[in-house]
From TrEMBL:
Residues 522-677 form the Helicase C-terminal domain. CDD domains: DEXHc_RecG (cd17992), RecG_wedge_OBF (cd04488). Residues 290-463 form the Helicase ATP-binding domain. Pfam families: DEAD, Helicase_C, RecG_dom3_C, RecG_wedge. Keywords: ATP-binding, DNA damage, DNA repair, DNA-binding, Helicase, Hydrolase, Nucleotide-binding. This is Probable DNA 3'-5' helicase RecG. GO terms for molecular function: DNA helicase activity; hydrolase activity. The keyword tRNA processing does not apply.
Length: 750
């Protein structure tokens, strides 16, 4: 950054003006220039003073008749009242401030006799027309002549994210004060000149002027596009550098055993009770070849819910164990980690009982390492990881702890990656003596540009096929207000339970919470059961809605429902101690408690093949991807799944459209795209836990797909030619600043 951009606003604007801006996090000239307008107001056409309509945005040409500052006795603070006239009609201008001093600059400019253009929204005060905090351009002050005043007044009006103490017009003035004197030398550009020239983009300074002081709508659009490109470019350059660094890193090659020479993988494949799908085979070959190279694999495996990612990952792990290394599997929650360990042991059978009576001679061990283990169990798990006795170590982020040592970590598999940040990935990769191979699995399919933005340093494999023999899932929307339908819902649950199957009942909250009508959970929910309820109220006031259904209340209600007499009702939510969670899960899996009332803690990965029904209460309040993920918990065995989406949404609302879309398709890619279209970018990136929101202010991950692809290609070219970016110091600094911001956000979140 140049000295000019790094200058504190206190120096440029003075302490008084800079103070409130600092409260908004704007401390330097650069901060302020990156505070982009949220939208642009129409400057309005010139209006005759005798045609001022209430509520209309107008611009009038008039002369100042009087202007006086006086204190407001009733409210405190001060008031500047001015009158302007076109010779026949009068209009008042009103400005409020905490202190009279703040109004002096206006008073100074609005001298009687001066003329200019005044812009604002017409309101009524005691029967006369007025403009409150109008924008104005005075001839001889802000503009040399009438004509220039017209140009100034016809600019689109930037509307900034503002606060009560710093209104948008004050931000606008501050921006102009710092922007007007800047020259090209003051504003360095992370986008290299040759890239800019080739793509015909304006300079950074021109782009800043365009978005903050536009001549026309076309002008600010052009500027904004260029700034979006810049954001995409810096991000993609950072990702290209990560890729390049990984490509030059060394890793231990873990080639598959030659055919006919035995090994865990060969034994596993021979004993597998089902045939792999074509997709599992293709992706398996991809992984096998990459693990055989002396460069760290950096791969993202995305797949439809239920497409069988676990088996693919396990086969990769076995190849590594066969080659003498260890594999670590990271899950986002303890429930999932414990379940993964159980699943892997079950899939491996005697192959996971190395060194035990009845175990395979060359078998290995699956160790589970979570934060809730007792001291003895923990010590044993740590020991088996450090000695190499455990070929596979499963855990949560506790695996990132310093105390955990591996004998020879060859592969890290991260399941349901969107819960893990880049930093956590790196921390785990640092655990090997050389970089381990890395396989990241996402819970749901994600659109291409999101993959490019959030996981842009990884190459992608995709599983689209669902294994044969699944009977699929039927989904229906059930109106909550219809008692007969609700009766039928519980009847259906009973029928399935009587047939020896299981039912999930999912609620958005844990506790009934009567004093917060329609509000969210009282205690901050754990990450693992964060119901995705953000921004889904569709603008409806919270007080107009019935309270959300809560786990504890619904469980009580079901226990008292005659239809479910004699059926054991289990409960699962994130505030239960880990031991109780495990117990609830196994009682459900075994059928002892065949109905499980839970929060979204069952969202990812939980695998109980006998579960056939899922009732989602307040389904209209969940996000699409989350519902799709939840629904993936059923229909995993031979019996068809039935998902009942109980909704309170009024027909025709976006909420109703969401649940209907979900009932209509089970295509994860289609739903993921729809989901993104309905969300704001912050949500997308927030949900991805990428921590990149602070550097992406204007870029939209879905709508700017073309820009992202273009930036990715350009950035790859620049990094390839100059991997250290020695010839691009501005770009290198922008990347470093972005990483700092990420680090900071990560620490704040932790
Ligand atoms: P996800 O991709 O959602 O993580 P899982 O790996 O949990 O899916 O697999 C879902 C279920 O399908 C598991 O019970 C698994 O054993 C089973 N499965 C995996 N691959 C196949 C296959 N090729 N044929 C039949 N069943 C399979
Ligand atoms: Mg899974």
């Amino acid at each position: 950054m140049t000295a000019r951009l790094a200058e504190p606003l206190t120096t440029t604007l003075g302490k008084r003006a800079a103070g409130p801006l600092a409260k908004m996090g704007l401390e330097t000239v650069d901060d302020l220039l990156r505070h982009y307008p949220r939208r642009y107001g129409d400057p309005g056409r010139m209006t005759d003073m005798d045609r001022l309509q209430l509520g209309e945005h107008v611009t009038v040409m008039a002369r100042v008749a009087s202007a006086t500052v006086r204190p407001m006795r009733s409210r405190g603070g001060a008031l500047l009242q001015a009158t302007v006239t076109d010779g026949r009609h009068e209009l008042s201008l009103t400005f409020f401030a905490k202190r009279a001093g703040a109004l002096r600059p206006h008073e100074d400019k609005l001298r009687p006799g001066r003329s200019g253009l005044f812009t604002g929204v017409v309101s009524d005060y005691r029967g006369s027309r007025q403009l409150t905090h109008p924008d104005y351009v005075l001839v001889g002050v802000d503009a040399d002549d009438d004509e220039e005043a017209m140009v100034e007044a016809s600019r689109p009006i930037p509307i900034y994210p503002a606060t009560a103490s710093v209104p948008t017009w004050r931000i606008q003035r501050a921006v102009r004060t710092v922007l007007d004197p800047l020259t090209e030398d003051d504003v360095v550009d992370p986008v290299p000149d040759e890239v800019r020239a080739r793509l015909g983009l304006p300079t950074r300074l021109d782009a800043l002027r365009a978005v903050h002081v536009p001549d026309s709508a076309e002008h600010w659009q052009r500027g904004r596009r260029r700034l979006r490109f810049e954001e995409a470019f810096v991000l993609q350059a950072a990702l290209a550098q990560r890729r390049a660094r990984a490509a030059s890193e060394e890793a231990t090659a873990r080639p598959p055993r030659a055919a006919g020479t035995g090994g865990l993988l060969a034994d596993f494949d021979a004993a597998l009770p089902f045939a792999l799908t074509d997709g599992q085979r293709t992706v398996g070959d991809e992984l096998a070849a990459e693990l055989a190279r002396p460069r760290p694999m950096q791969r993202l495996l995305q797949g439809e819910v239920g497409s069988g990612k676990t088996v693919v990952a396990l086969r990769a792990m076995l190849q590594v164990v066969d080659a003498g290394g260890q594999a670590a599997l990271l899950a986002p929650t303890e429930v999932l980690a414990a379940q993964h360990a159980r699943t892997l042991r079950a899939l491996l059978g005697p192959l996971a009982e190395g060194g035990m009576l009845g175990g395979a001679a060359h078998g290995t061990r699956v160790a589970l390492l979570t934060g809730s283990l007792g001291a003895a169990a923990r010590k044993e798990a740590l020991l088996s990881a450090a000695s190499g006795e455990a070929g596979i170590v499963v855990g949560t982020h506790a695996l990132l702890g310093d105390k955990v040592q591996f004998a020879d970590l060859g592969l890290v598999v991260v399941d349901e990656q969107h819960r893990f940040g880049v930093e956590q990935r790196d921390a785990l990769r640092d655990k090997g003596r050389v970089a381990p191979h890395l396989l990241v699995m996402t819970a749901t399919p994600i659109p291409r540009t999101v993959a490019m933005t959030v996981f842009g340093d990884l190459t992608t494999s995709t599983l689209t096929e669902i294994p044969a023999g699944r009977s699929g899932i039927a989904s229906h929307v059930v109106p909550a207000a219809n008692p007969r339908w609700m009766e039928r819902v519980w009847e259906k649950v009973r029928e399935e339970v009587d047939a020896g199957r299981r039912a999930y009942v999912v609620c958005p909250r844990i506790h009934p919470d009567d004093d917060v009508p329609g509000g969210g959970p009282k205690a901050p929910p754990e990450l693992e059961e964060m119901p995705d309820l953000l921004d889904l109220t569709d603008g409806e006031p919270a007080s107009d809605r019935a309270p959300l259904r809560a786990v504890l209340e619904v469980a009580d209600m079901l226990r008292g429902t005659p239809r479910l007499d004699g059926v054991e009702i289990g409960v699962l939510h994130g505030q239960m101690p880990p031991g109780e969670k495990d117990a609830a899960m196994s009682r459900f899996a075994s059928g002892e408690a065949p109905v499980l009332v839970s929060t979204t803690v069952v969202e990812v990965g939980v695998d109980v093949p006998e579960a056939t029904v899922m009732v989602v209460l307040d389904a209209d309040r969940f996000g699409i991807s989350q519902l799709h993920q939840l629904r993936g918990r059923i229909g995993r065995g031979a019996d068809p799944g039935l998902c009942l989406l109980v909704s309170t949404a009024q027909p025709g609302t976006p909420a109703a459209a969401r649940v209907e879309a979900l009932a209509a398709t089970t295509d994860g890619f289609e739903l993921a795209t729809l989901d993104l279209e309905l969300r704001s970018e912050g949500d997308v990136l927030g949900a991805a836990q990428s921590g990149r929101s602070s550097s992406l202010r204007l870029l939209r991950v879905v709508k700017d797909a073309d820009l992202i692809a273009q930036a990715r290609a350009e950035a790859a070219g620049v990094v390839e030619a100059d991997p250290g970016l020695d010839g691009h110091p501005v770009l290198a600094r922008a990347i470093a600043a972005q990483l700092d911001a990420e680090q900071e956000e990560y620490l704040e979140r932790a």
